[in-house]
Each structure stands twice: as structure tokens, then as C-alpha cells.
Amino acid sequence: MPRAGVHWSFVSTVSVYADYATPGLSAANTPLLPPPPSDVDGPGPDFRWYGECKVVIERLVRERVGEDRSFICRAGLIVGAEDSSNRFPYWMRRLACGGEVLTPGRPTDRAQFVDVEDLAGWLLHAGGTRLRVPGRRTAGWTRPGG
């Protein structure tokens, strides 16, 4: 059990959501994935169970720290300096080249990006003000290219 007066800000992920297709859903009413099977002890090498494992960790934070002393931030794609995944810089460089670009998904698919420095500032604010809004998204949804 954490010390009295301690506040936790936990960075989770939008990967905990079970439904991305239904219009009008918000962080408050979007269903979550079920926990992973009992024999799963991590996301796996292919990250098959990533969202499901984060669901379990969120529950443990709420249970052990307390709803009144924890803030769960469900971030989208965190991008910025020193991003070793190269997923965001690659697309920016590719789009800057111009011409036709083959991308996964459909043009109407949504993606959520948040700058790591903006996220860090917001998390410091959350800790400093003891924010308690579980599941609040970190940035608005944006359409690719729009």
C-alpha cells in the first residue's frame, strides 16, 4: 500500500479499448478489453496481449493505490524526440517527399498522436494537482492527413 498522501499518475494506452468503430463513444463509455488468459504474464514478443495486460495493470493501480489517489492517462501514439520506434518520423519524412503514398487502413481511420513533451507537462500537472480523471484521453482524435 502506498504512503498516505501519495498520488500516482499512470501512463496506460488507448489499446485497452475494445471498440474503435462505434461513433459517439468516449473514454467514459467505451468498453475495455477483457483481461488476458491466466497463463499470460506479459504482452508477448508480438505484443498480442498488450492492451489486455494494460487493463489488468490499470485495475491493480486503482485497487492498490485507490481511485482517489491515482490518475490513469490513456495515451495514444506518443511521439517526439528520441522516439526509437521511428513510426512517426518515417511517415512525416515520407509525406514530405510528395507523390502517392500507400498507407495502411482507410483515409477515414483515426489516429491519436501526443507529443512526449506535452504529455510530460500534463502528467506533472496531474501529479501536482492530484488529478483523478481515470481514462481521460490525452489529445483529440485527428484524421490522417487532415
Briefly note the structural class of the backbone: alpha/beta
Rough outline: globular
Sheet of most strands: 3 strands, parallel
N-end to C-end Cα span: 46 Å
Uncertain segments are: 135-146
Give the % helix: 25-40%
Tally of DSSP helical segments: 3
Number of strands: 5
Whole-number radius of gyration? 17 Å
The helix/strand order is EHEEHEHE
Describe the structure in brief.
The chain has 146 residues and is α/β, with parallel strands linked by helices. The protein has helices at 50-65, 87-96, 116-129; strands spanning 8-11, 70-74, 77-79, 113-115, 136-137.
What is the topology?
Layout lengths: L7 E4 L38 H16 L4 E5 L2 E3 L7 H10 L16 E3 H14 L6 E2 L9
Parallel strand pairs: 1-2, 2-5, 3-4
Describe the structure.
The protein has 146 residues and is α/β, with parallel strands linked by helices. 27% of the residues lie in helices and 12% in strands. The protein has 3 helices and 5 strands. Strand 1, helix 1 and strand 2 form a beta-alpha-beta unit. The longest helix is centred in the middle third of the chain and has 16 residues. The radius of gyration is 17 Å and the shape is globular. The C terminus is likely disordered.
